[in-house]
Amino acid sequence: MIIEKLDAILDLVEKPARYIGMEMHSVIKPDNEVNVRFAFAFPDTYEVGMSHLGLHILYQLINKEAGLQCERVFAPWPDMEAVMRSADIPLYTLESYRPLSEMDVVGFTLQYELSYTNILNMLELGGIPVLSADRGNHDPVVIAGGPCAFNPEPLADIIDLFVIGEGEEVTLELLRLYESMKPNFDRNAFLKQAAQIEGIYVPSFYQVRYNEDGTLAAFEPLEPGVPAKIRKRLMKDLNQSYFPDKFIVPFIDTVHDRAMVELFRGCTRGCRFCQAGMIYRPIRERSADEVVRLSETLLSTTGYEELSLTSLSTLDHSEIRPTIEALSKLNEDAKIGLSLPSLRLDSFSVEVLKEIQKVRKTGLTFAPEAGSQRMRDIINKNVDEQDLTETMRQIFELGWDKVKLYFMIGLPFETMEDVDGIAGLGDLVTYVHKRVSSVHKSKGLSVTVSASCFVPKPFTPFQWEPQDSLEQFKEKQRYLKQRITNKKIKFSYHDAETSRVEAVFARGDRRISKGLIEAWKNGARFDGWNDYFSYERWTEAFEKTGIDMDFYATRKRSYSELLPWDHIDAGVDKHFLVAENENAKSGTTTQDCRDGCIGCGVNVCWGGLC
């Protein structure tokens, strides 16, 4: 029994609570009540996975259904992997302690490209063949969804089927289909039936042909009746869609140790680098009354002392002011903190902060994204230096003294003058604080300036643009380190090598899987963690398997080129993305969708929802 072996090894590993389950609100059904076992597989640590809202939604949704059991499995940290292999313990789920190989369906969420090696490792540790072609009728069906599934091709040889879009309805449809076919299960017959469900992509039913120069020549269905283009799934009404009234409460701290309520899906801002802002269109809101009701319920069932309102742009909710006022009043006596994702640089953010600080001051994060106005117009950020100055003045007057500013370097059409503007904005913030503190009593200031490396993503206007070379990234990072001398500013930046590998997978095709498997065989694990990422291991793996990283990461692509994800319908029209890329070149901004339809294609394709 796995549980008996665990008793002998858990004192040998860091944070054994990652591996025991049994938390409050976890669900364990009797065997005679379960027809289909689904493992929600998160390819990172327990602490990261348990902070993911999508896990909590699907977990409770599936478990409220008769005959279905959702269980959880996370990537074991290297110390746990070592003792599991030594003790011959397969990777298991936290609910029933069954090996992954005994699940009916194993579903991975694809949140980040650098988690892909963990997927291979979890399959192998769980006793499941890594390649889809090697699985038989007695092996689990391996599925995947999430934002990275919008370019599924790098995992096409590994995943049996992909869920494109939002998963609440389609996951239940898949599990009920499996349930109906389980008595005489035939894998190929199941995949053929699944491919008829909207939003399901079965890679083995399609073939890819390449041109002599390595670009794609054609993408063709092999099976009659499968769609030539796979249309994403969409939840049309959030007020009617499922949201849990309780979360599993971990025994240990997690990355986001708080209750979370989703305000809305989609975004109308139209930042040209942002994949989420494109693939989650159109915008769909949850009403203020429903948000308050869910918040009150979750806080009472979990005991959390902080509530986060999640979305891509929280303050864009049409009822955000009454929502914040109601929650502040509700939480004032209980001293429940209210946190929001990165804030807009405008006066409305400050008005909301006045409500939030009545209970507790939480950290403030703003995302100017670029240092110069020219660059902010290119990316369609639609904020200016005056917005930053005025917002900083007001928050300092309200008593905040810790601010984080997020930027990107390596954006298309960027110059060193644009990079210099990042340091300039950091200095501006400290100058504004100095002026405020000369009038108002103020504590010492702490400013964090963070610069990530741009990665071109599918279904964005910048999907055709090249990524900076490693030398260009490092030159800009060195320059900023030298330029930021203000002691009140802490400068941090993202590792350029990880961003390069990320770009290879973000814009990769089916051939990339060979390099992925090679890197994994050579020890690649937890590539999103600096302590475990090895760029040398990746370059060796790609070189051995004949993959040119520059071909995928730093090559500019033409509008006429067939892209590896062109068979996926994310709702946004390709002509719109081309037009937005051309607008970027001229620095022409595009208005917010809320101010009038900009013709992205979603309004037509999804029946005028936006």
Summarize the structure.
This protein has 610 residues and is an alpha/beta fold.
Can you describe what's shown?
The model has no long low-confidence stretch (mean pLDDT about 95). About 35% of the residues lie in helices and about 15% in strands. The protein has about 600 residues and is an alpha/beta fold. Helix 17 packs across helix 18. The chain is globular and about 75 Å long. Strand 16, helix 14 and strand 17 form a beta-alpha-beta unit. It folds into 2 domains: about 230 residues, Cobalamin-binding domain (Rossmann fold); about 260 residues, pyruvate-formate lyase- activating enzyme.
The low-pLDDT segments are none
What's the CATH first level of the largest domain? Answer: Alpha Beta
Taken together, the total number of domains comes to 2
Adjacency order of strands in the biggest sheet: 2-1-3-4-5-6
Helix vs. strand class? alpha/beta
Shape: globular
